[in-house]
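INTERNAL AUDIT FORM
Audit reference: QA-55
Scope: verify that the stored structure record matches its stored sequence.
Auditor: D.O.
Record contents follow.
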Amino acid sequence: MEATIKISSVNRKDSSLFTCVAHNAYGRDDTNFQIVVQEPPDRPPAVDVTNKGSRSLTLTWAAPYSGNSLITKYIIEHKTVKEPWSLAKITNVDTTDTVYTIQGLLPHTTYHVRVKAENAIGSGDFSEPITLVTEGEAPNGPPKDVRAKATSSRSIQVTWKPPAKEDILSPIDGYYVGYKSRLGDQFAYKTLETSHGGLLECEITDLSKNTKYRVIVQAFNSKGAGPPSEETQ
C-alpha cells in the first residue's frame, strides 16, 4: 500500500521535520522525514564600495539567505549613469567570496552597480543599485593652439584652447602659463584659475625690452598638472 501527500503551496517557513503515523486494529507505526524548501537566493544586502580609484573600485556585500541551496556564484553588473541596464557589463564571480574589484573604469565617471546571487535553483533578484563617481586624474594632454603675441615692448598676450576632450579626466581648475627668455634656463609661471568655459588668455607684463620669449601652458586640476604644450615664441 502506498500513500501520497501533496502540499500545493509552500514557502521557506515550511522547511521542517515531519512525522507520518499509521495505525490499525493491530497497532501503530511512525516515521520521520525532513522537508527542505529550496528557492533562489535573496538579493544581497549591504552592498558597498570599500576602495575607489580612478579606474577601479572594490565592491563588498553581505551573503544573502541562500534559499537552502549553496550559493554557487555572484553576478555583478555595472554601467555608466547614461547607459541602460541592457548595456551593462556583466561579471560572473564564481566564488563564495563577497568582495570583488572591478577594473577598466573611466576616471571621473558616474556608475551604477548592482549584485545578485545564484544557486542550483536559479538566480535571485539584484540588489538595489548603488551610485558612485570614480576618482579623477590629472589632464592627460596639453592645451591646444597656444599662441603668443606682443602687445607692447614689455608685454605678451597668450591665448590657448583646452586639451582634447578625451584628455580631460577631471574638471580643469586652471592653467599654468610659463615664460622665459630665449637664453633663460627656467620658466617663470603665472597661474590662471578659470571656470569651465572661461576665457583662455593671459597677459604677461614687466618683460625685458627687445627680448624674445618662449611660452608654455599647462592645464591643472585637483589631481595635478598635465603635460605642457610645446614652446611657443
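Auditor finding: record pair retrieved intact. The first strand starts at residue 16 and ends at 24.
Action required: none
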